Amino acid sequence: MPETLIDMAKALVMAQIEARYVTPDNLRTELHSTYDTLRQLQAMENENSGDAGAAGERSSPEMPDWKKTISKYAIICLECGDSLKQLSRRHLQRHGLDSKAYRRKYGIPREQPLSARVATARRRQLAKSIRPWEKAHTAKSAPKRTRSSQAKQTPS
């Protein structure tokens, strides 16, 4: 296993080159980017190891606050940063997630809609005006007419 950050960065970039083609122009950029990321991670690791005894401190990076991503007119996807009216099933599938996995990953409660507040309010208002629960109840209680019962009722 590589000992220094430079060796680790070289090993990671070599693995990237083996997995996919990297142009010579991008090779230097990839190496610098990987090295900088490793250096930042090492600095964070060193800071966290010194504060390990402090109460309330976590060694893992902090989760983004999902409450800040839901605004009046839009919801921001925590995976890609897109601003949408609603996080649809199709959009979440692009990230390899479904709504249940997305909620679990970011700690969003099941009761929280994955849509902008205006869209949620409009949907709620529409449901209250249509009152589908009453229509479903009356449809179940009404007798169903079949062709055989209609044929018996017609005089011959």
TrEMBL record:
Outline the segment boundaries, as ranges, of region: Disordered.
125-156
Question: What GO MF terms are annotated?
Answer: DNA binding; zinc ion binding
Q: Which InterPro entries match?
A: ROS/MUCR_sf, ROS_MUCR
**Biological processes annotated in GO:** regulation of DNA-templated transcription
Task: State one Pfam family annotation.
Answer: ROS_MUCR
Superkingdom of origin organism: Bacteria
Task: Give the family this protein belongs to, as stated in its UniProt record.
Answer: Belongs to the ros/MucR family.
User: What is the official name of this protein in its record?
Assistant: MucR family transcriptional regulator
Q: Which organism is it from?
A: Candidatus Entotheonella gemina
